[in-house]
Write a structure and sequence with these properties.
The chain has 422 residues and is of the alpha/beta class. It has helices at residues 44-61, 80-94, 113-122, 134-138, 150-162, 179-188, 223-236, 246-255, 306-310, 313-320, 327-330, 335-338, 360-380, 394-406, 415-419; strands spanning 9-13, 65-71, 99-106, 124-129, 167-172, 191-197, 244-245, 272-275, 281-282. It folds into 2 domains: 9-210 and 223-322, Aldolase class I (TIM Barrel), CATH 3.20.20.70; 324-419, no CATH class. It starts with 8 loop residues before the first strand and ends with a helix. Bound molecules: iron/sulfur cluster. Residues 328-329, 332, 334-335, 338, 340-341, 356-357, 360, 363-364 line the site of iron/sulfur cluster.
């Protein structure tokens, strides 16, 4: 069956365990236990088969640029020899016909001089997971003795800066802490980029302090939106140099008419699958927040092709989810910017994925605020683009959703698919 997308990114779980134990981790601490059935490391036999399948798939689909994310758990626990052999095997088999990019997300606790040199030689990009200053970070990012990881990570960040490496961070936004102090902290430690992610959550696994249901949103309950708006107001007017805040940066780009492939915003599919350490092919890991074993697929790289994987039910939905929006999102004036956020945040036991994001009011509030700030700036700069964008407040956007929803609607042919995951 034609899926309408191609897999251009794979996240390869070279290590299925982690050396630390973050309280919010969706892999180990949010109700999914499938990691226990996985080998600790992906074997050479499995990744050689994976390389064969990627090569064949790229050839069949005429793909000339392919991204590989080294994923965990914590990928660095695989060791230097393993990662060297893994990256080299991929490059030897696929380049120069297929341009490869490698990236990883690390908790940063194991980095040292040798890792920094090796990753530079192998051309593997990486970001560090850190939630903010010591108090914010160590509230959740702890080792197996419940000891915070901040001091260790910070000493390695200093090392990276001595090596003149740009340091990008991935951070879970924490509404218990002040966004401006958190942002100032990242500035102080020399961050080049910070991506503040919404906590992995949905209607089944509600985020802290949100009490929406699949039937009803409380439009005044927007702690995440309020957090992001405070951050935006500081960041947007902050003079350069300043860190790039990824989510806000992408919102600005989309508002200005550019297309971006980003899970959390916009309408472009991310075209990604996950390969478990035993070779199982699954949809993105964050979907584990929907329940124990939720991403299991019965497909393995030894017995299935990536072309077959494209058509696996959950993989297909994840990669086409921006085109399969719930009715409220179709009625929403911000849908092209929001894209209903991230598929895992739409899940509930009643409607499956046939919901807006559980963060909907927060998102609508952020987007209308950012859009208005952009229009004001464009007008001040005398840009003709300002005439193409009509200002719209949060309240006006909500009214428009209600008005559009009250109209008669055609049948959405994908609703059954969205609800089949209940
Ligand atoms: S703001 Fe809400 S209704 Fe609008 S697209 Fe996003 S999730 Fe859907």
């Amino acid at each position: 069956m034609e899926t309408g997308f191609s897999i251009k990114n794979i996240a390869v779980k070279i290590a299925s365990r982690c050396n630390i134990n973050c309280s919010y981790c969706y892999i180990y601490n949010r109700g999914d236990h499938s990691y226990k059935d996985q080998p600790k490391f992906m074997s050479k036999e499995v990744y050689e088969e994976l390389i064969n399948k990627v090569q064949r798939y790229c050839f069949e689909k005429e793909i000339t640029h392919f991204r590989v994310f080294l994923f965990g758990g914590e990928p660095l626990i695989a060791g230097k020899k393993y990662i060297t052999e893994f990256v080299t095997a991929f490059r030897e088999a696929l380049e120069p016909d297929i341009k490869l990019s490698f990236a990883m997300q690390t908790n940063g606790t194991l980095l040292d001089e040798e890792w920094i040199t090796l990753l530079r030689q192998l051309k593997v990009g990486y970001g560090i997971s850190l939630d903010g200053d010591k108090e914010v970070n160590d509230a959740n990012r702890v080792d197996f003795n419940n000891k915070g990881t901040y001091d260790k990570v910070l000493s390695n960040v200093t090392l990276l800066k001595e090596h003149k490496q740009p340091v990008g961070f991935l951070s879970f936004l924490n509404i218990n802490y002040d966004p401006i102090a958190t942002y100032e902290h990242f500035k102080r430690i020399g961050a080049s980029t910070v991506d503040f992610l919404f906590p992995d959550a949905n209607f089944y696994n509600l985020p802290q302090d949100l009490h929406h249901t699949e039937d009803e949103f409380d439009w005044n309950n927007t702690p995440y939106g309020d957090w992001y708006i405070k951050l935006f107001d500081k960041w947007f007017h902050d003079p350069n140099p300043k860190p790039r805040v990824r989510y806000l940066n992408y919102l600005l780009q989309i508002i200005l008419g550019n297309e971006v492939g980003y899970d959390l915003a916009g309408t472009q599919p991310t075209e990604l699958v996950m390969i478990e350490s035993n070779g199982d092919i699954e949809a993105v890991d964050d979907l584990r927040v929907c329940g124990d074993g939720f991403t299991r697929s019965k497909m393995n790289i030894k017995s299935h092709t990536l072309l077959e994987a494209e058509d696996q039910k959950l993989i297909r939905l994840h990669n086409s989810s921006k085109q399969k929006l719930a009715r409220q999102c179709i009625a929403c004036p911000a849908r092209e910017i929001c894209g209903a956020n991230y598929l895992p945040t739409r899940y509930g036991k009643k409607n499956g994925f046939n919901n807006p994001s559980v963060y909907c009011p927060d998102l609508l509030k952020i987007i209308t605020h950012v859009r208005d700030a952009v229009i004001t700036e464009l007008k001040a700069a005398g840009s003709p683009l300002a005439n193409e964008l009509e200002p719209m407040s949060y309240e006006e956007a909500r009214e428009m959703i209600a008005l559009n929803l009250a109209e008669e609607h055609e049948i959405l042919e994908y609703e059954e698919e969205l609800e089949s995951f209940r």
